[in-house]
Amino acid sequence: MDPANTNQSYITVDHVGQPDQDTYFTLDVLSKFYLTPHHKLNKEFLEKELYPHIKRVKKCDKKRILVTGGAGFVGSHLVDRLMLMGHEVIVIDNFFTGSKTNILHWIGHPNFTLMEHDIVTPILIQVDEIYHLACPASPPAYQFNPIKTIETNVIGTSNMLSLAKQVKARFLLTSTSEIYGDPLEHPQKETYWGNVNPIGPRACYDEGKRAAETLTYAYQTQEKVDVRVVRIFNTFGPRMDENDGRVVSNFIMQALQNQDMTIYGDGNQTRSFQFVHDLVDGLISTMRNEFTLPINLGNPVEFTILELAEELKGFIGSESKLVKLPAVQDDPKQRRPDISLAKEKLDWEPKFSRQQGLLETIQYFRQIVEADCEATRRS
Ligand SMILES: O=c1ccn([C@@H]2O[C@H](COP(=O)(O)OP(=O)(O)O[C@H]3OC[C@@H](O)[C@H](O)[C@H]3O)[C@@H](O)[C@H]2O)c(=O)[nH]1
């Protein structure tokens, strides 16, 4: 990528977490996992550096942590961080959208367990904390099998809450900005109840997550389960699936291959994107905090989809054309989080600029495109 295209008008962040805390790591420790091409992760990398160095934790501070959806995009970054922090991590994933490649570097580590399991079926595991992420998150993926999506959100969440009750674990639900629907309040505060179409194509996800929130607080009130809820706004980063269908991965893959960049609608709809490492900081802070009501986690810098396309095209130096396709039904016209609550309760706000995050994400996808080209050449 041509650095001249980036304007370099942003501050580069070289770490995640808080400098004086166990969550602190330099970015290169994490990026080695996903910027190392996958074929190298399989061979030289794992042979030379069998397992990444993890922090030593006193036995009494070491937790058994369940991450549902831990092989997915966000889940795998959370797993990296919890493993590096020295905890014991159990991943449950049905691999519908998750991938073993995302967590390959931990397989076989004594602190790590991977279980292929669908949370729609109950399971009993002794754990201290549950990060509940399992659910397809990209609109094409969650609309592919809407019955399964709502079952995952309702039956799956109910099973995980029941597990939390049985083993007395703290439970964190990852809800979504989609519960605000096509919002009439802007920016969105946690107090806003939303504008959701209950029978539209997005309902399996947004109504599913709304029901998951309802279940979570029902378990808190009725069964005294110790719960946390975060509402995650648009997030991007390395390990998004190249065929995921969300805008950042679509645009980067298209621009890298000089294909048409597909704008749905007029491109004036807005979003606010956070880099995945900021989100992981927010998830861990929420789990540790005593505040139990929903908290927005997102980056409040808002821009249009057209601006995003132009920016990515410029960063990549692509010859792609921007083409306008019909708008998606019920597509929210605007979205931006109010993060005052996260600042007040968690002392959290995003550290990474969009530019730095996008450049690292481009680097990740570039290696995938190059590997695909190489495979095609060899076949
Ligand atoms: O190729 C594309 C893909 C998407 N888009 C548009 O870009 C915007 C963002 O689309 P995405 O699919 O990335 O994400 P959405 O905002 O629609 O949904 C997301 O919301 C928050 C999260 O919970 C989920 O990750 C996801 O459901 C939409 O307006 C969409 O129509 C394009 O213009 N072109």
UniProtKB/TrEMBL annotation:
Record-listed E.C. numbers: 4.1.1.35
Family: Belongs to the NAD(P)-dependent epimerase/dehydratase family. UDP-glucuronic acid decarboxylase subfamily.
One example GO MF annotation: UDP-glucuronate decarboxylase activity
Any GO CC annotation of this UniProt entry: Golgi cisterna membrane
Gene Ontology biological process terms from the UniProt entry: D-xylose metabolic process; UDP-D-xylose biosynthetic process
The species this protein was found in: Stylonychia lemnae (Ciliate)
Domain NAD(P)-binding: 66-359
Reaction it catalyzes: UDP-alpha-D-glucuronate + H(+) = UDP-alpha-D-xylose + CO2
Gene3D superfamilies: NAD(P)-binding Rossmann-like Domain
Domain of life: Eukaryota
Protein's name in the database: UDP-glucuronate decarboxylase
Names of the cofactor(s): NAD(+)
Keywords, comma-separated and alphabetical: Cytoplasm, Decarboxylase, Golgi apparatus, Lyase, Membrane, NAD, Signal-anchor, Transmembrane, Transmembrane helix
Pathway linked to the protein: Nucleotide-sugar biosynthesis; UDP-alpha-D-xylose biosynthesis; UDP-alpha-D-xylose from UDP-alpha-D-glucuronate: step 1/1
Bilayer topology: Single-pass type II membrane protein
UniProt subcellular location: Cytoplasm; Golgi apparatus, Golgi stack membrane
Pfam families, per database record: GDP_Man_Dehyd
Enzyme class: lyase
InterPro entries: NAD(P)-bd_dom, NAD(P)-bd_dom_sf, UXS-like
